[in-house]
Design a protein that fits this description.
Length: 276
Amino acid sequence: MVDQKHDGDGAGGGRATVARIYDYLLGGKQNFPADREAARQLLQVVPDAANVALSNRLFLRRVVRVLAEAGITQFLDLGSGIPTQGNVHEIAQAINPATRVLYVDIDPVAVVASNEILMGSPGCRAIEGDFTRPTQIVGALDDSDLATVIDLDQPTALLYCSVLQQVPDEQIDAVIAPIRDRLAPGSAMVISHLSTTVTEAYGATGVAKAKNVYRTQAATEIIPRTSDQLAALFGDLTLLPPGLVSLTHWRAELSEPDPYAIAGTSSPMLGGVATR
Ligand SMILES: C[S@@+](CC[C@H](N)C(=O)[O-])C[C@H]1O[C@@H](n2cnc3c(N)ncnc32)[C@H](O)[C@@H]1O
């Protein structure tokens, strides 16, 4: 994937990052002037960008609830982002307090903020890591004290929410397969992803402009994918009903309606949950 340049000194003088642009869109405070400027440019071409982010978070909360209620007690959240309202451990531990969550993100701001809110949550951790290096993540889980958080021999929920659209086609199978194929029986894999329907929503020019904002402001390529491309990423796992659908329509009855449902439209992101 394209290397992201981070604001290593935390002083706010560096380049925007996807994590902090997303935080800003969700109304968070863990962002700097470069992130706010990137978000401002994005909102000029995609006026509902904040709704895309909110709809994704509502989907994530519904998914975690469904999986926790199904008995999964381990969540591996790759590209977990900066904490917001209704984080994975909060939703899952409300159902089963013994649930363990490992948050992994490449952005140090996300990792520090996650560990701060995890102080009262034994069994949960946040680490800096690159999910495009899956063998390193599997190796860390197998060989370190992280195995007390995620034991891959036990049913695990693997979350790829709004992250895989940053991985180029030529890498995506190699990024996903080592962890997906390691999942034990009873595990689940979750994907939410920008779909090619964005072109219908914003036009080819709008999409090109939005991609250009991420490329120039955050050194990140955004790659929308079709439903067939996304279905293939689940490998031999079986999609749960309702399948791979607009996030707006995935078990919508389980949360407040997202902004698209209220407007009678659909999020341009697709999501699905598959189990082994
Ligand atoms: C749009 S946010 C999504 C956050 C969260 N998953 C959600 O759905 O609310 C994308 C996140 O992926 C992280 N990310 C991007 N590339 C990554 C990589 N190679 N390894 C780990 N995290 C990555 C970013 O730092 C950012 O926090």
